[in-house]
Write a structure and sequence with these properties.
binds S-adenosylmethionine, two-stranded antiparallel sheet, globular, 37% helix, alpha/beta, 9-stranded mixed β-sheet, Rossmann fold
Protein backbone atom coordinates (compact mmCIF):
# COMPACT_ATOMS: atom_id res chain seq x y z
CA UNK A 1 0.00 0.00 0.00
CA UNK A 2 1.37 3.42 -0.96
CA UNK A 3 -0.03 6.88 -0.19
CA UNK A 4 -0.98 9.63 -2.58
CA UNK A 5 0.37 13.15 -2.08
CA UNK A 6 -2.82 13.95 -0.22
CA UNK A 7 -2.33 10.92 1.99
CA UNK A 8 -5.02 8.66 0.53
CA UNK A 9 -3.96 5.00 0.74
CA UNK A 10 -3.52 3.42 -2.69
CA UNK A 11 -3.41 -0.33 -3.16
CA UNK A 12 -2.26 -1.65 -6.51
CA UNK A 13 -4.19 -4.65 -7.82
CA UNK A 14 -3.38 -4.58 -11.50
CA UNK A 15 -3.74 -8.36 -11.52
CA UNK A 16 -7.50 -7.73 -11.40
CA UNK A 17 -7.45 -5.46 -14.46
CA UNK A 18 -9.89 -7.57 -16.48
CA UNK A 19 -12.74 -7.36 -13.97
CA UNK A 20 -13.19 -3.63 -14.66
CA UNK A 21 -14.26 -4.56 -18.20
CA UNK A 22 -17.35 -6.23 -19.61
CA UNK A 23 -15.26 -9.12 -21.02
CA UNK A 24 -15.69 -11.64 -18.15
CA UNK A 25 -19.48 -11.26 -18.50
CA UNK A 26 -19.33 -12.95 -21.87
CA UNK A 27 -19.21 -16.33 -20.18
CA UNK A 28 -22.11 -15.72 -17.79
CA UNK A 29 -25.68 -16.41 -18.94
CA UNK A 30 -28.01 -13.38 -18.80
CA UNK A 31 -25.10 -11.05 -17.90
CA UNK A 32 -23.99 -11.30 -21.52
CA UNK A 33 -27.26 -10.36 -23.21
CA UNK A 34 -26.37 -6.81 -24.14
CA UNK A 35 -22.73 -6.15 -24.88
CA UNK A 36 -21.90 -2.88 -23.14
CA UNK A 37 -18.34 -1.82 -23.73
CA UNK A 38 -18.47 0.67 -20.86
CA UNK A 39 -19.80 -1.87 -18.38
CA UNK A 40 -17.94 -3.71 -15.64
CA UNK A 41 -18.17 -7.43 -14.89
CA UNK A 42 -19.98 -9.70 -12.48
CA UNK A 43 -16.52 -10.40 -11.03
CA UNK A 44 -16.09 -6.72 -10.23
CA UNK A 45 -19.33 -6.72 -8.23
CA UNK A 46 -18.17 -9.82 -6.40
CA UNK A 47 -14.86 -8.12 -5.59
CA UNK A 48 -16.61 -4.88 -4.52
CA UNK A 49 -18.80 -6.84 -2.10
CA UNK A 50 -15.66 -8.38 -0.61
CA UNK A 51 -14.33 -4.83 -0.13
CA UNK A 52 -17.45 -3.93 1.83
CA UNK A 53 -16.52 -6.43 4.51
CA UNK A 54 -20.15 -6.84 5.62
CA UNK A 55 -23.31 -8.37 4.19
CA UNK A 56 -25.41 -5.56 2.74
CA UNK A 57 -29.19 -5.57 2.98
CA UNK A 58 -29.84 -3.18 0.09
CA UNK A 59 -27.31 -2.28 -2.61
CA UNK A 60 -27.84 0.82 -4.74
CA UNK A 61 -26.28 1.33 -8.17
CA UNK A 62 -27.18 4.88 -9.27
CA UNK A 63 -25.46 4.43 -12.68
CA UNK A 64 -26.81 0.97 -13.27
CA UNK A 65 -26.04 0.57 -17.01
CA UNK A 66 -26.95 -2.93 -18.11
CA UNK A 67 -27.73 -4.14 -14.60
CA UNK A 68 -24.70 -6.23 -13.63
CA UNK A 69 -24.79 -5.07 -9.98
CA UNK A 70 -28.46 -5.94 -9.67
CA UNK A 71 -28.11 -9.34 -11.29
CA UNK A 72 -25.31 -10.34 -8.96
CA UNK A 73 -27.24 -8.99 -5.96
CA UNK A 74 -30.26 -11.10 -6.95
CA UNK A 75 -28.13 -14.19 -7.34
CA UNK A 76 -26.57 -13.73 -3.91
CA UNK A 77 -29.76 -12.79 -2.08
CA UNK A 78 -29.22 -9.04 -1.57
CA UNK A 79 -31.95 -6.51 -2.26
CA UNK A 80 -30.97 -3.90 -4.81
CA UNK A 81 -32.04 -0.70 -6.55
CA UNK A 82 -30.85 0.59 -9.91
CA UNK A 83 -31.10 4.03 -11.49
CA UNK A 84 -29.94 5.22 -14.89
CA UNK A 85 -30.54 8.31 -16.99
CA UNK A 86 -30.90 6.21 -20.11
CA UNK A 87 -34.28 4.55 -20.76
CA UNK A 88 -32.49 2.00 -22.96
CA UNK A 89 -30.20 0.95 -20.09
CA UNK A 90 -33.13 0.78 -17.69
CA UNK A 91 -35.06 -1.44 -20.11
CA UNK A 92 -32.09 -3.82 -20.44
CA UNK A 93 -31.49 -3.92 -16.67
CA UNK A 94 -35.16 -4.58 -15.98
CA UNK A 95 -35.45 -7.36 -18.51
CA UNK A 96 -32.35 -9.09 -17.13
CA UNK A 97 -33.58 -9.03 -13.56
CA UNK A 98 -37.25 -10.07 -13.80
CA UNK A 99 -38.87 -13.39 -12.95
CA UNK A 100 -40.50 -15.01 -15.95
CA UNK A 101 -42.95 -17.71 -16.69
CA UNK A 102 -40.77 -19.66 -19.12
CA UNK A 103 -43.74 -21.46 -20.63
CA UNK A 104 -45.37 -18.15 -21.61
CA UNK A 105 -42.12 -16.96 -23.20
CA UNK A 106 -41.88 -20.17 -25.23
CA UNK A 107 -45.49 -19.85 -26.36
CA UNK A 108 -44.99 -16.23 -27.38
CA UNK A 109 -41.85 -17.20 -29.31
CA UNK A 110 -43.77 -19.87 -31.16
CA UNK A 111 -46.49 -17.36 -32.01
CA UNK A 112 -44.09 -14.73 -33.27
CA UNK A 113 -41.98 -17.01 -35.41
CA UNK A 114 -45.07 -18.56 -36.98
CA UNK A 115 -46.17 -15.24 -38.51
CA UNK A 116 -45.41 -15.00 -42.22
CA UNK A 117 -43.26 -12.08 -43.29
CA UNK A 118 -45.09 -9.03 -44.63
CA UNK A 119 -43.08 -6.17 -46.08
CA UNK A 120 -43.20 -3.28 -43.62
CA UNK A 121 -43.27 0.39 -44.47
CA UNK A 122 -39.79 1.86 -44.05
CA UNK A 123 -40.73 5.40 -45.02
CA UNK A 124 -40.43 6.74 -41.51
CA UNK A 125 -36.97 5.27 -40.96
CA UNK A 126 -34.32 7.93 -41.42
CA UNK A 127 -31.52 7.62 -43.93
CA UNK A 128 -29.18 7.85 -40.93
CA UNK A 129 -30.47 4.52 -39.60
CA UNK A 130 -30.88 2.93 -43.04
CA UNK A 131 -27.14 3.21 -43.78
CA UNK A 132 -26.40 0.75 -40.94
CA UNK A 133 -28.40 -2.18 -42.32
CA UNK A 134 -28.76 -4.41 -45.29
CA UNK A 135 -32.20 -3.51 -46.73
CA UNK A 136 -33.69 -6.99 -46.24
CA UNK A 137 -32.38 -7.26 -42.71
CA UNK A 138 -33.90 -3.88 -41.85
CA UNK A 139 -37.26 -4.98 -43.26
CA UNK A 140 -37.13 -8.06 -41.04
CA UNK A 141 -36.21 -5.99 -37.98
CA UNK A 142 -39.06 -3.53 -38.52
CA UNK A 143 -41.47 -6.38 -39.20
CA UNK A 144 -40.54 -8.12 -35.93
CA UNK A 145 -40.55 -4.87 -34.01
CA UNK A 146 -44.19 -4.31 -34.99
CA UNK A 147 -45.05 -7.82 -33.82
CA UNK A 148 -43.20 -7.30 -30.54
CA UNK A 149 -44.96 -3.97 -29.95
CA UNK A 150 -48.29 -5.73 -30.25
CA UNK A 151 -47.54 -8.15 -27.37
CA UNK A 152 -49.96 -7.22 -24.61
CA UNK A 153 -48.07 -8.41 -21.54
CA UNK A 154 -45.48 -5.74 -20.73
CA UNK A 155 -42.94 -8.10 -19.21
CA UNK A 156 -43.05 -10.46 -22.19
CA UNK A 157 -43.02 -7.52 -24.63
CA UNK A 158 -39.91 -6.04 -22.98
CA UNK A 159 -38.17 -9.42 -23.03
CA UNK A 160 -38.65 -9.75 -26.79
CA UNK A 161 -37.78 -6.09 -27.31
CA UNK A 162 -34.39 -6.56 -25.67
CA UNK A 163 -33.85 -9.75 -27.66
CA UNK A 164 -34.60 -7.79 -30.81
CA UNK A 165 -32.30 -4.91 -29.85
CA UNK A 166 -29.41 -7.30 -29.11
CA UNK A 167 -29.94 -9.32 -32.29
CA UNK A 168 -30.18 -6.18 -34.44
CA UNK A 169 -26.98 -4.74 -33.08
CA UNK A 170 -25.19 -7.95 -34.01
CA UNK A 171 -26.29 -7.77 -37.65
CA UNK A 172 -25.93 -4.03 -38.12
CA UNK A 173 -23.04 -2.33 -39.89
CA UNK A 174 -22.64 0.04 -36.96
CA UNK A 175 -19.25 0.13 -35.36
CA UNK A 176 -19.06 2.17 -32.17
CA UNK A 177 -15.88 4.17 -32.11
CA UNK A 178 -15.95 6.40 -29.04
CA UNK A 179 -18.75 8.86 -29.66
CA UNK A 180 -19.01 8.09 -33.36
CA UNK A 181 -20.95 5.41 -35.21
CA UNK A 182 -19.15 4.19 -38.29
CA UNK A 183 -20.50 2.06 -41.13
CA UNK A 184 -18.49 -1.15 -41.46
CA UNK A 185 -20.10 -3.47 -44.00
CA UNK A 186 -20.06 -7.20 -43.40
CA UNK A 187 -21.95 -10.31 -44.39
CA UNK A 188 -25.10 -10.66 -42.37
CA UNK A 189 -27.00 -13.88 -41.64
CA UNK A 190 -30.75 -14.15 -42.37
CA UNK A 191 -32.25 -12.11 -39.54
CA UNK A 192 -35.26 -14.29 -38.73
CA UNK A 193 -33.03 -17.29 -37.99
CA UNK A 194 -30.61 -15.19 -36.02
CA UNK A 195 -33.31 -13.54 -33.89
CA UNK A 196 -35.01 -16.89 -33.24
CA UNK A 197 -31.72 -18.40 -32.09
CA UNK A 198 -31.05 -15.46 -29.80
CA UNK A 199 -34.48 -15.69 -28.17
CA UNK A 200 -33.95 -19.40 -27.66
CA UNK A 201 -30.61 -18.68 -25.99
CA UNK A 202 -32.19 -16.04 -23.73
CA UNK A 203 -34.87 -18.46 -22.57
CA UNK A 204 -32.27 -21.18 -21.93
CA UNK A 205 -30.15 -18.71 -19.97
CA UNK A 206 -33.07 -17.96 -17.68
CA UNK A 207 -33.15 -21.61 -16.75
CA UNK A 208 -29.48 -21.47 -15.76
CA UNK A 209 -29.63 -18.60 -13.27
CA UNK A 210 -31.02 -18.92 -9.78
CA UNK A 211 -32.30 -15.80 -8.12
CA UNK A 212 -32.65 -15.61 -4.37
CA UNK A 213 -33.82 -12.07 -3.62
CA UNK A 214 -36.93 -10.42 -5.08
CA UNK A 215 -36.99 -8.37 -8.30
CA UNK A 216 -35.01 -5.15 -7.83
CA UNK A 217 -36.45 -1.70 -8.36
CA UNK A 218 -35.01 -0.23 -11.58
CA UNK A 219 -35.95 3.23 -12.77
CA UNK A 220 -35.04 6.07 -15.07
CA UNK A 221 -33.59 8.80 -12.89
CA UNK A 222 -30.72 11.07 -12.10
CA UNK A 223 -27.95 10.05 -9.72
CA UNK A 224 -27.68 13.71 -8.68
CA UNK A 225 -31.25 13.74 -7.39
CA UNK A 226 -32.37 10.47 -5.84
CA UNK A 227 -35.55 12.03 -4.45
CA UNK A 228 -37.42 8.74 -4.40
CA UNK A 229 -35.00 7.34 -1.81
CA UNK A 230 -35.31 8.19 1.87
CA UNK A 231 -32.31 9.19 4.00
CA UNK A 232 -30.28 6.18 5.21
CA UNK A 233 -32.38 3.77 3.16
CA UNK A 234 -29.56 1.71 1.57
CA UNK A 235 -26.48 0.20 3.13
CA UNK A 236 -24.09 -0.18 0.19
CA UNK A 237 -23.44 1.59 -3.10
CA UNK A 238 -21.55 -0.15 -5.90
CA UNK A 239 -21.33 1.87 -9.06
CA UNK A 240 -19.40 3.19 -11.99
CA UNK A 241 -20.28 6.65 -13.29
CA UNK A 242 -19.46 7.70 -16.86
CA UNK A 243 -15.72 8.26 -17.04
CA UNK A 244 -14.28 11.74 -17.26
CA UNK A 245 -13.83 12.76 -20.87
CA UNK A 246 -15.44 9.52 -22.07
CA UNK A 247 -19.04 10.53 -21.71
CA UNK A 248 -19.87 10.89 -25.35
CA UNK A 249 -20.75 7.22 -25.77
CA UNK A 250 -24.20 8.02 -24.53
CA UNK A 251 -24.87 9.48 -27.96
CA UNK A 252 -24.16 6.28 -29.84
CA UNK A 253 -27.54 4.70 -29.17
CA UNK A 254 -29.38 6.78 -31.75
CA UNK A 255 -30.19 3.69 -33.84
CA UNK A 256 -31.79 1.88 -30.88
CA UNK A 257 -33.91 4.88 -29.91
CA UNK A 258 -35.12 5.54 -33.44
CA UNK A 259 -35.96 1.93 -34.26
CA UNK A 260 -37.15 0.56 -30.93
CA UNK A 261 -37.75 3.29 -28.36
CA UNK A 262 -39.12 6.15 -30.39
CA UNK A 263 -39.88 9.22 -28.29
CA UNK A 264 -37.97 7.96 -25.27
CA UNK A 265 -34.59 9.41 -26.12
CA UNK A 266 -33.21 11.20 -23.05
CA UNK A 267 -32.28 14.84 -23.13
CA UNK A 268 -28.54 14.27 -22.87
CA UNK A 269 -27.56 17.71 -21.69
CA UNK A 270 -30.10 17.69 -18.90
CA UNK A 271 -29.97 14.04 -17.87
CA UNK A 272 -26.35 12.96 -18.14
CA UNK A 273 -23.62 13.95 -15.78
CA UNK A 274 -20.75 16.02 -17.07
CA UNK A 275 -22.48 17.39 -20.15
CA UNK A 276 -23.81 20.71 -18.89
CA UNK A 277 -21.79 23.83 -19.59
CA UNK A 278 -19.95 25.44 -16.71
CA UNK A 279 -20.59 29.14 -16.15
CA UNK A 280 -18.07 31.51 -17.69
CA UNK A 281 -16.85 32.73 -14.30
CA UNK A 282 -16.23 29.16 -13.19
CA UNK A 283 -14.19 28.31 -16.24
CA UNK A 284 -11.09 30.08 -15.03
CA UNK A 285 -9.78 27.22 -12.89
CA UNK A 286 -6.78 25.05 -13.57
CA UNK A 287 -9.03 22.31 -14.90
CA UNK A 288 -10.49 22.20 -18.40
CA UNK A 289 -14.20 23.21 -18.38
CA UNK A 290 -15.38 19.66 -19.21
CA UNK A 291 -13.58 18.33 -16.15
CA UNK A 292 -15.08 21.08 -13.99
CA UNK A 293 -18.56 20.24 -15.22
CA UNK A 294 -17.91 16.57 -14.52
CA UNK A 295 -16.68 17.04 -10.96
CA UNK A 296 -19.39 19.56 -10.18
CA UNK A 297 -21.92 16.85 -11.03
CA UNK A 298 -19.97 14.16 -9.20
CA UNK A 299 -20.09 16.29 -6.06
CA UNK A 300 -23.89 16.30 -6.28
CA UNK A 301 -23.81 12.53 -6.73
CA UNK A 302 -21.58 12.11 -3.66
CA UNK A 303 -23.93 14.29 -1.61
CA UNK A 304 -26.94 12.19 -2.61
CA UNK A 305 -25.11 8.94 -1.98
CA UNK A 306 -24.07 10.21 1.46
CA UNK A 307 -27.69 11.10 2.24
CA UNK A 308 -29.19 7.75 1.24
CA UNK A 309 -26.46 5.56 2.77
CA UNK A 310 -26.87 4.60 6.39
CA UNK A 311 -24.12 5.23 8.92
CA UNK A 312 -20.87 3.33 8.92
CA UNK A 313 -21.53 1.86 5.50
CA UNK A 314 -19.58 1.92 2.23
CA UNK A 315 -19.86 3.30 -1.29
CA UNK A 316 -17.57 1.94 -3.99
CA UNK A 317 -17.03 4.01 -7.13
CA UNK A 318 -15.18 2.62 -10.12
CA UNK A 319 -13.81 5.42 -12.25
CA UNK A 320 -10.86 6.39 -14.44
CA UNK A 321 -8.51 9.32 -14.89
CA UNK A 322 -9.13 11.77 -17.72
CA UNK A 323 -6.52 12.56 -20.33
CA UNK A 324 -6.25 16.18 -21.49
CA UNK A 325 -3.61 17.97 -23.56
CA UNK A 326 -2.64 19.71 -20.33
CA UNK A 327 -2.07 16.40 -18.50
CA UNK A 328 -3.86 13.61 -16.68
CA UNK A 329 -6.56 14.39 -14.13
CA UNK A 330 -6.58 11.75 -11.40
CA UNK A 331 -10.30 11.21 -10.95
CA UNK A 332 -9.85 8.86 -7.99
CA UNK A 333 -7.95 11.53 -6.03
CA UNK A 334 -10.37 14.30 -7.03
CA UNK A 335 -13.33 12.16 -5.99
CA UNK A 336 -11.65 11.25 -2.71
CA UNK A 337 -11.04 14.92 -1.92
CA UNK A 338 -14.62 15.86 -2.66
CA UNK A 339 -15.90 12.87 -0.68
CA UNK A 340 -13.87 14.00 2.31
CA UNK A 341 -15.49 17.47 2.02
CA UNK A 342 -18.89 15.82 1.90
CA UNK A 343 -18.27 13.92 5.14
CA UNK A 344 -17.09 10.52 3.93
CA UNK A 345 -13.86 8.94 5.05
CA UNK A 346 -11.72 7.42 2.31
CA UNK A 347 -10.85 3.86 3.26
CA UNK A 348 -8.63 3.27 0.25
CA UNK A 349 -8.20 3.59 -3.47
CA UNK A 350 -7.67 0.28 -5.24
CA UNK A 351 -5.85 0.85 -8.53
CA UNK A 352 -7.10 -1.83 -10.92
CA UNK A 353 -5.86 -0.71 -14.30
CA UNK A 354 -3.63 1.90 -15.89
CA UNK A 355 -3.23 3.12 -19.42
CA UNK A 356 -0.52 5.18 -21.01
CA UNK A 357 -1.81 8.71 -21.55
CA UNK A 358 -0.60 10.45 -24.67
CA UNK A 359 -0.82 13.88 -26.22
CA UNK A 360 -1.57 13.88 -29.98
CA UNK A 361 -1.51 10.06 -29.80
CA UNK A 362 2.30 9.85 -29.59
CA UNK A 363 3.78 11.95 -26.81
CA UNK A 364 3.52 10.16 -23.46
CA UNK A 365 2.29 12.48 -20.71
CA UNK A 366 1.69 9.99 -17.90
CA UNK A 367 -0.65 7.23 -16.80
CA UNK A 368 -4.42 7.27 -16.50
CA UNK A 369 -5.48 5.04 -13.64
CA UNK A 370 -8.77 3.17 -13.29
CA UNK A 371 -9.62 2.58 -9.66
CA UNK A 372 -12.21 1.57 -7.16
CA UNK A 373 -12.55 4.29 -4.52
CA UNK A 374 -13.81 2.87 -1.23
CA UNK A 375 -15.69 5.48 0.82
CA UNK A 376 -17.25 5.12 4.23
CA UNK A 377 -20.03 7.20 5.75
C1 LIG B 1 -20.01 3.50 -16.98
S1 LIG B 1 -21.72 3.32 -17.28
C2 LIG B 1 -22.22 2.21 -16.03
C3 LIG B 1 -21.93 0.83 -16.39
C4 LIG B 1 -22.48 -0.20 -15.43
N1 LIG B 1 -21.63 -0.32 -14.27
C5 LIG B 1 -22.57 -1.53 -16.15
O1 LIG B 1 -21.74 -2.41 -15.88
O2 LIG B 1 -23.42 -1.67 -17.02
C6 LIG B 1 -22.40 4.81 -16.74
C7 LIG B 1 -23.91 4.90 -16.84
O3 LIG B 1 -24.32 6.13 -16.24
C8 LIG B 1 -25.49 6.57 -16.91
N2 LIG B 1 -25.69 7.98 -16.53
C9 LIG B 1 -25.13 9.09 -17.03
N3 LIG B 1 -25.56 10.19 -16.37
C10 LIG B 1 -26.40 9.76 -15.40
C11 LIG B 1 -27.14 10.42 -14.37
N4 LIG B 1 -27.12 11.73 -14.21
N5 LIG B 1 -27.87 9.64 -13.54
C12 LIG B 1 -27.93 8.30 -13.68
N6 LIG B 1 -27.26 7.63 -14.66
C13 LIG B 1 -26.50 8.35 -15.51
C14 LIG B 1 -25.24 6.22 -18.37
O4 LIG B 1 -26.46 6.06 -19.07
C15 LIG B 1 -24.49 4.89 -18.24
O5 LIG B 1 -25.37 3.80 -18.34
Amino acid sequence: MTRSQNNFPIEERYDLRLITTFIPNKRYPVYNWFYFKEGFSRDFVEYAISLLGYKPRVILDPFVGVGTTLLYAREKGYHSIGVDASPLMVLVSKVKTRDYNIKSLREEAQKIFRVRFRKPNLSNISSFVKQFFNKYVLEDIVFFNELVDSIEDEKIRNFFKVGLICSSSKVSYAYRDGSVLRVVKKNTPPFRKFFKRFIRKMIKDLEKVKFISPEPEVRVGDARRLDFLKDSSVDAVITSPPYLNKIEYTKVYRIEYELFLRGEEPNLLRSFIGLSKVEEDEADSSMPPVARAYFKDMRLVLREVKRVLSEDKKAIFLLAGGVFPTGVIESDIELSEMATDEGFSVEKIVALNKRVATRNRVEKIGWARESAVVLKT
